[in-house]
Each structure stands twice: as structure tokens, then as C-alpha cells.
Write a structure and sequence with these properties.
The chain is mainly α. The protein has helices spanning 2-22, 54-67, 89-96; strands at residues 45-47, 78-80. Helix 1 (2-22) packs across helix 3.
Length: 97
Amino acid sequence: MGKLVNGIIAAIATLFIMAGISMPALAATDDTYVPKNDSAGNIFVQDQANVLSVKTEKHVYDLNKSWESREDKPQLPVVTVSTLDGVPIERKAKELF
């Protein structure tokens, strides 16, 4: 089961890293979506590469918040990075998540 989880994490990280490389047109301005009524801020999105629009960040946040009422409490964290700094993607994904 651990290998499956690690594989899923690596796949998700790869998708978001590739999205950051291939879609700079979606880059957000300096205005990052932070929900006003959530004291923790947007803990579900960390756009370190500045490739996500405010609309996308809000969608991910809203999706995660809507799942809080479910019994299994799934979460979809989204992290983008501009570089892996030579670190294998699997290790970077584990560090981030």
C-alpha cells in the first residue's frame, strides 16, 4: 500500500510541475486567494511557481471544503514548484506532502 501512495503522490506532483512548465499563461498575479472566513488560510494550495490563477486556487479550496462533511474526509492538496533543484521527483513529493 505504501508504494501505491508514494506513486500517487509522485504522479500528482509530476502533473503540477509539468503544468507549471507548460502553462505559464495561467500564472496568477501577486493576489493569491486566501479565504476571508478561514483562519488557517488556504492550506490546500501552495502555488510556489506562481502558475495557478486565483480562480483555480479558489476552486481547489472550495472543493476541499465541500468534502469536509464526508465521512472519509478526502483532501486534494495542490503544490507547484518552479524547480526540483536536482532532487528526484519522488523524494520532492514526499518532502512536500
